[in-house]
Amino acid sequence: MLKDELLDVHHTAVCVTDFERARDFYVDFLGFELEGEADNRSESALGDVVGLKGATIRWAMLRRGSHCVELFKYYQPEGNRTPREQCDLGYTHMAMRVRDVDAVFEQAVAAGYEPVSTPRVLRGGKTKVFYLREPEGAITEFIQFNELG
């Protein structure tokens, strides 16, 4: 069974148009470390793996703890540039567990990032969360888990 082969979750991939701005968001604001970066990657196996023959990309792997974010900027082919809504089919956001969601919210606003709302208490007080629009419209959730006695 697959569950016997699955070790852990390695990375989440994010496709962007402004590579430097996206990389800076993850590295400078979220504290990810740059593990590797390459420009104009176009090996034929890449196109085979992603199902896009002739794909040419700029790429980076960023790590924070045990999780990585893989950044892609496609030079070829050009994709849909409309950010997804949370109700759209497929993956919609990445969540970061934080100690103090209000402090993160204040830092995000001070840094010029666009929150979807202020932090809100959910799940009967078990969590406090807010969503933040990344520089190109993708969503990152910041979630604080509250200890309830």
How would you explain this protein's 3D organization?
- The protein has 149 residues and is an alpha+beta fold.
- It has 2 domains: 2-76, Roll (2,3-Dihydroxybiphenyl 1,2-Dioxygenase, domain 1); 93-145, 2,3-Dihydroxybiphenyl 1,2-Dioxygenase, domain 1 (Roll).
- Helix content is 21%, strand content 38%.
- It has 4 helices and 9 strands.
- The protein has helices at residues 2-5, 19-29, 44-50, 101-110; strands at 11-15, 33-41, 56-64, 67-76, 93-97, 114-115, 120-122, 127-133, 139-145.
- Strands 5, 6, 7, 8 and 9 form a 5-stranded mixed β-sheet that branches. A 4-stranded mixed β-sheet has the order 1-4-3-2, with helices on one face.
- A hairpin with a 2-residue loop joins β3 and β4 (67-76).
- The N and C termini lie far apart (38 Å).
Describe the SSE topology:
Blueprint: H1 2-5, E1 11-15, H2 19-29, E2 33-41, H3 44-50, E3 56-64, E4 67-76, E5 93-97, H4 101-110, E6 114-115, E7 120-122, E8 127-133, E9 139-145
Parallel strand pairs: 1-4, 5-9
Antiparallel strand pairs: 2-3, 3-4, 6-8, 7-8, 8-9
What are the main properties of this structure?
149 residues; alpha+beta; 2,3-Dihydroxybiphenyl 1,2-Dioxygenase, domain 1; 2 domains; five-stranded mixed beta sheet; four-stranded mixed beta sheet; 9 strands; 38% strand
